[in-house]
């Protein structure tokens, strides 16, 4: 079946290992993927893409993420999490913290999947190389303290795709992520996770605005032709038979299909 499965990844396994478990249950040769890596120590929502749903990966990857995190203060970790080398400093902040929101400049951790010179940063770091991934700008929509208990504090963070929560916590002072759980990706909630349920592609894309096409426009779109319509970003192209694909603005009043999903052999991205 083509679609998206919501998985609650446990701690102690990689996202690739979680994906492999789903892949083994699919017919031989079925394409699979996921929309956003979780570190092995982290838990929570992982979107697993099956079959033609792998073609919509980038639209799911761009969705904002929401995390619950337990930060341990008074210590630093070489990886920003419990799996690194922990250095105790004893410096524990008192009172309120400055929790950054809006556009934030951050440097991904050395132990991250960011590529440096074409190689994953964590691979270089494990070899003992000095790794300094380039800074990037991310958006932090919400950064709230939920509780505090001695040298630990709990936070909920809603942020853009590509944000490293480990870096946000490390920037608060002598602190690292002791526990990290992803609870939402865009409209998808970990409370709805069920590895036995597959959301159809149309349902999985329901967060995108819809552009309804006439039969003539639908035939044109199926062959990659631009159609009349207004869209400020990606939009679902539909007709009376349902989902055709995804279109993006080409020019004022024009939308071009970028992913076609209908047909026995969909061409994918155009």
Itemize the secondary structure elements and their pairings.
Layout: E1 3-9, H1 15-23, E2 32-34, E3 43-50, H2 57-61, E4 65-73, E5 75-77, E6 86-88, E7 102-106, E8 115-116, E9 119-120, H3 121-126, E10 136-149, E11 152-159, H4 165-170, E12 175-185, E13 188-189, H5 201-204, E14 210-212, H6 215-222, E15 227-228, E16 235-239, E17 242-251, E18 254-260, E19 268-269
Parallel strand pairs: 3-12, 14-16
Antiparallel strand pairs: 1-3, 2-3, 4-11, 4-12, 5-6, 7-10, 8-9, 10-11, 12-13, 15-18, 16-17, 17-18, 18-19
Q: Supply the helix-strand structural class.
A: mainly beta
What is the 3D form? elongated
- Distance from N terminus to C terminus (CA atoms, Å) equals 23 Å
The tally of helices reads: 6
Q: Encode the helix/strand succession as letters.
A: EHEEHEEEEEEHEEHEEHEHEEEEE
How many strands? 19
What fraction of residues sit in β-strands?
Answer: 35-45%
Largest sheet: 9 strands, mixed
Helical residue percent? 10-25%
Question: What are the segments in which pLDDT stays under 50 over at least 5 consecutive residues?
Answer: none
- Residue-averaged pLDDT: 91
Rg measurement, Å: 21 Å
């Amino acid at each position: 079946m083509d679609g998206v499965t919501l998985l609650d990844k446990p701690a102690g396994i990689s996202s690739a290992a979680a994906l492999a478990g789903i892949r083994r249950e699919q017919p031989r040769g079925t394409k699979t993927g996921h929309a956003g890596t979780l570190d092995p120590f982290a838990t929570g929502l992982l979107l697993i893409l099956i079959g033609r749903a792998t073609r919509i990966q980038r639209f799911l990857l761009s969705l904002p993420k929401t995390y619950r995190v337990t930060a341990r203060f008074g210590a630093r970790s070489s990886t920003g999490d419990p799996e690194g080398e922990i250095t105790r400093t004893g410096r524990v902040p008192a009172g309120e913290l400055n929790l950054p929101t809006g556009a934030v400049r951050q440097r991904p951790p050395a132990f991250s999947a960011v590529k440096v010179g074409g190689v994953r940063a964590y691979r270089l770091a494990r070899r003992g190389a000095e790794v300094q991934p380039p800074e990037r700008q991310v958006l932090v929509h919400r950064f709230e303290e939920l509780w505090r208990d001695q040298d630990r504090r709990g936070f909920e963070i809603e942020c853009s795709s590509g944000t490293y929560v480990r870096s946000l916590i490390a920037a608060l002072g002598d602190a690292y992520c002791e526990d990290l759980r992803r609870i939402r990706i865009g409209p998808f909630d970990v409370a709805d996770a069920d590895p036995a349920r597959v959301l159809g592609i149309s349902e999985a894309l329901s967060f995108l605005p819809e552009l309804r096409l006439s039969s003539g426009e639908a035939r044109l779109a199926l062959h990659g032709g631009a159609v009349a319509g207004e869209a400020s970003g990606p939009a679902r192209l539909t007709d009376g038979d349902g989902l055709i694909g995804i279109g993006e603005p080409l020019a004022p009043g024009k939308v071009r299909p970028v992913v076609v999903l209908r047909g026995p052999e969909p061409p994918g991205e155009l």
